[in-house]
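Table S2 (continued). Query chain:
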Amino acid sequence: MTTPMVFILFPGTAREALTFYEGVFGGELSLHTNGDFGTGGPPDAIAHGVLDGIVTLAGADAGRQEQSVQLEGLMLSLLGTAEPALLHDWFDQLADAGRIVDPLTPKPWGASDGQVIDRYGLHWLIGYEPAHHITNSAKEQAAP
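Corresponding output:
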């Protein structure tokens, strides 16, 4: 199944930001500069970068005629994408030098989730269902 990939135009911080996300999520990072591609703009600016792994992100440094990332009304969701301990670790790392909008805690509806805006302005929604709920759902799906 093909899914959309987030491609972020950073305000001259693409190398730093994508390296940060590699440190948080792991994966393989490839960075290509304007100089590598022979395109216009500062030769050291990132023309195309991709973090490929459990979380995949792509980005570049915004060119002169391009707007850099400004998010309103959009969250990158990592609901149920990893074990709870790992999701808490990601949340904490993204919150470092960022801003917690809503702590990653149990909610009245039974799930645990939270929101954080990281140091590069990306808004993340991270959470998971309780283990007994997942186990019961798996049992229900497996029942004849």
